[in-house]
């Protein structure tokens, strides 16, 4: 039987194929865990986005609906209640 020797290029090609095959197996084994982690992260990001989307309008809405009991003005002839009512009406328009 005749023995054939490999040259450097053939050896390098076989070495790369073996390394790629083992890397492919490792990637295939790790894919389900990676997919679970990705789904979990996307779910968490969605929950945070929804929470922020709900909280911001609620917090922003509270600032404009307060009644004003006391108003400081340099015109002393007009009652505080009138200025408070005017300020409340103006803020409700926005």
User: Which value, in Å, is the CA radius of gyration?
Assistant: 36 Å
Number of helices: 2
Unreliable spans are none
The count of strands amounts to: 0
What does the average pLDDT come to? 82
**Could you say which structural class the secondary elements and strand pairing correspond to?**
mainly alpha
The first-to-last residue Cα distance is 95 Å
**What is the 3D shape?**
rod-shaped
Largest sheet: none
What share of the residues lie within helices? over 70%
> How large is the share of residues in beta strands?
under 5%
Q: Could you give the order of the helices and strands?
A: HH
Protein architecture, described:
There is one protein chain. It is built from two helices and no strands. The chain is mainly alpha-helical. 74% of the residues lie in helices and 0% in strands. It starts with 7 loop residues before the first helix and ends with a helix. The mean pLDDT is 82. The relative contact order is 0.05.
Give the arrangement of secondary structure elements.
Blueprint: H1 8-63, H2 80-93
Task: Name the features.
single chain, 94 residues, mainly alpha, 2 helices, 0% strand
């Amino acid at each position: 039987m005749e023995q054939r020797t490999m040259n450097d290029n053939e050896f390098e090609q076989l070495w790369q194929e073996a390394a790629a095959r083992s890397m492919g197996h490792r990637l295939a084994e790790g894919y389900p865990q990676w997919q679970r982690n990705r789904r979990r992260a996307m779910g968490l990001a969605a929950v945070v986005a929804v929470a922020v989307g709900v909280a911001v309008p609620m917090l922003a809405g509270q600032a404009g609906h307060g009644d004003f009991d006391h108003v400081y003005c340099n015109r002393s002839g007009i009652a505080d209640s009138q200025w408070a009512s005017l300020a409340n009406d103006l803020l409700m328009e926005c």
